[in-house]
Write the structure tokens for this entry.
Amino acid sequence: MANEALQPIVDIDRMIHEPARLMIVSYLYVVESADFLFLMRQTGLTRGNLSSHMSKLEAAGYVAIGKEFVDKIPRTVLWLTSKGRKAFEVYRQSMKQVLDSLNGKSDADK
């Protein structure tokens, strides 16, 4: 039974599960969009590190990246795609299921 409860870990989305990307996707999940500098400050990631993770998330189809100008200053804006939003919801549910099973709780107990 313990193996069944932990099975969702095997299938976890590793693109999201990496700690830096989990922070990024979590922030983007609760907002419509965020600019690059805001995410850099919130996550504590360096410019290069954030850029690298954003590129991976964009390649996976989870994040869209837009460029705009505000008072002639370039601004990079990021948001979760519908695919990214759905992937994060699946990830959250899988992790909740695993963590609840460790406490001896199951959906039937709720």
Notes: Residues 36 and 76 are 5 Å apart (CA to CA).
